Amino acid sequence: MEIKANLAGVVWQVLVSHGEEIIENQDVVILESMKMEIPIESEKSGKVKEVKVKEGDFVNEGDVLMVVV
Question: Start and end of every Lipoyl-binding domain (predicted)?
């Protein structure tokens, strides 16, 4: 499963790392957009296979933030 950005913004904080087990609805990334912090949640439980962004990166809506298996 791919976790994607639901809006354009800057990656303010990455809350999980490669290999970490996560649960459904867990915050995994916080984006900053228009001076607001927007948490991005995992839709399903699983293990983080790949983190595709780092703090400070700019992302567009629909960009893949991480892959969970």
Answer: 1-69
